[in-house]
Design brief:
There is one protein chain. This protein is an alpha/beta fold. Helices cover 52% and strands 14% of the residues. The protein has twelve helices and eight strands. Strands 3-2-4-1-5-6-7-8 form an eight-stranded mixed beta sheet, sandwiched between helices. A hairpin with a 7-residue loop joins strand 7 and strand 8. Helix 6 packs parallel to helix 7. The protein is elongated and about 70 Å long. Bound molecules: guanosine-5'-diphosphate. The site of guanosine-5'-diphosphate has 18 residues, from helix 6. Keywords: Cytoplasm, GTP-binding, Hydrolase, Nucleotide-binding, Ribonucleoprotein, RNA-binding, Signal recognition particle. One of its GO terms (cellular component) is signal recognition particle. Its EC number is 3.6.5.4. Its main location: cytoplasm.
Length: 296
């Protein structure tokens, strides 16, 4: 289960606080020291932890809280609210173009779950009565096109492909035209990933970007990779101006670092969370629900 370690450590801290009728400044300082360690151990970015703890402390050490009837509970509420804010505050919705089709470009490193997420997103949109078209622009990973076609067939969503001999930029361009000609209201472009961020990959993504002018550029990152996921998001964002992040593999035993740091470090909201390999295991990301889940 995701966040297991973090949740149990935070629960420990809070049960101590809750047990106290009166809470002293020292109690808060001690609790915050433990929260800090719990977050660091969960692989949350160092700077993010520092700022987070400072904010909570500032709000918790005050006459209103100390004199309240249940100070422990009030402090837990403060932590909950700050965790929610850290992950973006409220749900960040998918853009919708006033001039269809809405273009969504998917990016990410190989293995992050980009192709799978492309299929899942199409399924979500289809459930909302949209008519998405998938564009197979990952011509480098063997079987990526086939994988997308199989996903498309599974959910009955068409996949535009020109095989693996045409350039991804050309595929994206023609795919977009095909969507316009066939009244699709969304196109989702599955782009190529690499094992590492490299200049060639970025150049190609930039070209696809300038050719298709996407409404959304979603970066798919593997939550299991913790701080690496955040670093990847930061480097993509510097070059591509992401509009959102999709966190995958939250069903695994991720410690929480990526979920809690990515918004604060990159400024990019998490728009979706993937919680399994199945086609319907994708949901809009709700910071407040995630915070409650982390707090257990
Ligand atoms: P891509 O190289 O980024 O396109 O990655 P794929 O979409 O091929 O996914 C890589 C692997 O991760 C596949 O085995 C997927 O089934 C798996 N995967 C993707 N998303 C999730 C998820 O949310 N949870 C789990 N457990 N596995 C996932």
């Amino acid at each position: 289960m995701a966040f297991e370690g973090l949740t149990s450590r935070l629960q420990n801290v809070f049960s101590k606080l809750r047990g106290k009728g009166k809470v002293s400044e020292e109690d808060v300082t001690e609790a915050m020291r433990e929260v800090r360690l719990a977050l660091l151990e969960a692989d949350v970015n160092f700077k993010v932890v520092k700022e987070f703890v400072a904010k909570v402390k500032e709000k918790a050490i005050g006459k209103d809280v100390m004199d309240s009837f249940t100070p422990g509970m009030v402090i837990i509420d403060i932590v909950n609210k700050e965790l929610t804010d850290l992950m973006g505050g409220s749900q960040s919705k998918l853009a919708k173009s006033s001039k269809p089709p809405t273009v969504i470009m998917m990016a990410g490193l190989q293995g992050a779950g980009k192709t799978t997420t492309t299929g899942k997103l199409a399924k979500l949109l289809q459930k909302q009565n949209s008519r998405p078209l998938l564009i197979a622009a990952d011509i480098y990973r063997p079987a990526a096109i086939k994988q997308l076609q199989v996903l498309g067939e599974q959910i009955n969503v068409p996949v535009f492909s020109l095989g693996d001999q045409t350039s991804p930029v050309e595929i994206a361009k023609q795919g977009l035209q095909h969507a316009k000609d066939n009244q699709h209201d969304y196109v989702i472009i599955d782009t190529a990933g690499r094992l590492h961020v490299d200049a060639e990959l970025m150049e190609e993504l930039k070209q696809i970007h300038s050719e298709t002018n996407p409404d959304e550029v979603l970066l798919v990152v593997d939550a299991m990779t913790g701080q690496d996921a955040v670093n990847v998001a930061e480097s993509f964002n510097q070059q591509l101006e992401l509009t959102g992040v999709v966190l995958t593999k939250l069903d695994g035993d991720t410690r929480g670092g990526a979920a809690l740091s990515v918004k604060a470090v990159t400024g990019c909201p998490i728009k979706f969370a993937a919680l399994g390999e199945k086609i319907d295991a994708l949901e809009p990301f709700h910071p407040e629900r995630m915070a409650s889940r982390i707090l257990g």
